[in-house]
Each structure stands twice: as C-alpha cells, then as structure tokens.
Amino acid sequence: MENKIKRGMLLGFIGVVCFSLTLPATRISVPYFGETIVGLGRTVIAASIVATIFVVKKQSLPNKKQLKSLLIVAAGAVLAFPLLTTFAMKSLPVSHGAIQLALLPLATAGFSLWRGGDRPSKRYWIASAIGAITVMIYALDLGLGQFQKGDIAIIAAVLVLGLSYAEGGQLSKELGGWQVIAWAILIGAPFFIVPVGFSISVNMLQAPIEAWVSLFYLGVVSQFLAYVAWYGGMSLGGIARVGQIQYLQPFLMIGFSVSFLGESITWLTIVLAIIVVLCVILGKSAPMTKKESHDK
User: Fold this and answer.
1) Is 296 within a domain?
2) Is residue 295 part of a domain?
3) What is the maximum alpha-carbon separation in the chain?
4) Residue 59 DSSP label
5) What are the percentages of helix, strand and coil residues in the chain, rounded to 5?
6) What is the mean pLDDT of residues 29-53?
7) What confidence tens digit (pLDDT) does each residue in 112-164 have?
8) Domain boundaries, position 189
9) What are the angstrom distances between the C-alpha of 249 and each of 13, 101, 114, 170?
C-alpha cells in the first residue's frame, strides 16, 4: 500500500512539473507559430498519439451520457484553455500568469462542489474572495491601474479549466482518468484540423529549434502525457493526497520563467503567490454541507 502511494505521489509530481512548463513553452513558441498553431495545433499532435493507442487497444466508444461530459471537458481543456493562455502569453510574463493560475485548484473545487450538490462554507468563500482580490491587485499593479486583455484571458482560462477538471473528475470514475482527456482530444481534434492547416506557412520552417521543441512539448506532453501522469497519480495515491502537489505549480512556473525566459522576479510576486496558495489550501480544506432536498 505504501509503495502504491509513493508511486502515486511521484506520478502526481511529474504531472505538475509537466504542467508547470506549459506557459513557458507557450511563450517561446507563439512568436514563431502564432496563436492558432500553438493553441489548436497541440491538440492535433496529441490526437495522432491518442488515435494510435486507441486503435492498438481496440478501445470501446463512450456512451451518450459520457459523451456529453466529454464535450464539456473538450471545450475547456482542449479548446478554450489552450487558446486563452496562448493569447495571454503574447503580452503577459509567465510569472504573472502563474499567480492567476494558482487559483485553478480553488475553481476546480468550487465547480466540483456545485456538481456534487454540496454547499461551500463561509471559509471557502472568504478564502476565494481573498485569493481573487490578491490576483486582481497584482494584475492592476502590473497593468498600471487597469486590467490587460491577457489578464481577462487567464482568469477566463481558470474558470473554464476548473469546470473541465470538475467534469472530468466525475467522469474519470467511469472511464478512467487518462481516457477522459484522450477522448476529449479526439473529439476536439477534427474541428481544429482545418484552421490549423490554413495557418501553416513556409516561414515557420525558419523557426529556431527551441520553438519547435516547445510546440511538440505542448502537443505530446502538456496536452496528453502530463494528464496521464496526473490522473494516474491520483488513482494510485488518492485524489486528496496527490492533489496537494498542485500547490507547487505556481512556484515551479515562476522558477521556469526565470530559468528559460530570463524573467525578473520581485519579492512582491513571491509574497502574493504565497498568499494565493494559502487561500487555495484554506478554501479546499473548508467544511461543506449538503444542500437540503425538497423531495418528500
């Protein structure tokens, strides 16, 4: 049992590290390939891997009810989140996006509670409010008193991915964790082939090696393998236990932004990141009550 938990924690950590490299890889690749290729092309790359696996495994199709949930997962994790973060990374530093994305576990918890019929306590709402206000203050400070379009895009990305994670978490109990993202990728990919195809240009061949590596990292790792590690870790070590590793993500993102992009980090960034993560920890551990049923 202990070895199973250790393997789960290791897989969960690998998943978080992989997710933490997503924004830096996006920041590197966008100037050379554009928003459409980076935002949607990663799904086309991932879909080729998933399709091969499903053919080899002779995977059975999901039922109609599961398909509805998969459409929600695909809309968030496969379409909206990549496009919104790609747009945001055109103008925002990665460290900025990392603090806003730190609210993701709290958003996921909120949507999970809503889906499960639970009623959050005052502690949850207070923690959520403090975390949101901290993020807004940071965004306004960097934006010289006003929100940038990238800020709005990142906040929207947190909300749609939070809903997608919550829906995927419910569905993973039936399909299995890795199959949820795999089917979501296959559902979304056919709609992306045409816009991606029209966005390809000869000039892309002149992109440096780091841009190509970043693009394929997004397609192979961020969009698929990271999810396999993450969901696999939670299934082995437990959702609550392994989920705590996600608190490291904003700090890993900030570290990678310094290492790979040479971004400068202020003490304010570190302090606000700590405040947001503490709010997330308090919010996720807050007691919940079931909504009263009116059925007789």
Assistant:
1) no
2) no
3) 69
4) P
5) 85, 0, 15
6) 93
7) 777 666 566 777 778 778 877 877 777 676 654 556 788 889 889 989 988 88
8) 2-287
9) 9, 9, 24, 23
Question: Helices 249-261 and 2-20: crossing angle, nearest 10°?
Answer: 50
C-alpha 13/C-alpha 4 separation (Å) is 14
- The average confidence (pLDDT) of the chain is 83
Does residue 259 belong to any structural domain of this protein? Answer: yes
The answer to whether the Cα torsion of 293, 111, 270, 8 is positive or negative is positive
In a domain, 76, yes or no: yes
Stated pTM of the model: 0.80
Per mean pLDDT, which range of 34-43, 77-86, 123-132, 181-190 is the poorest?
Answer: 123-132
User: Which residue in this structure is represented by tokens 């947001």?
Assistant: 276
Q: What is the DSSP string of 172-219?
A: HHHH-HHHHHHHHHHHHHHHHHHHHHHH--GGGGGS-HHHHHHHHIII
Report the distance separating Cα 125 and Cα 110, nearest Å. Answer: 9
Mean pLDDT of 238-246: 69
Which of 218, 20, 16 is CA-nearest to residue 8? 16
What's the pLDDT at 217? 97
For 25-46, b/e burial (b = at least 16 CB within 10 A) is bbbbbbebbbbbbbbbbbbbbb
Domains of the chain: total = 1
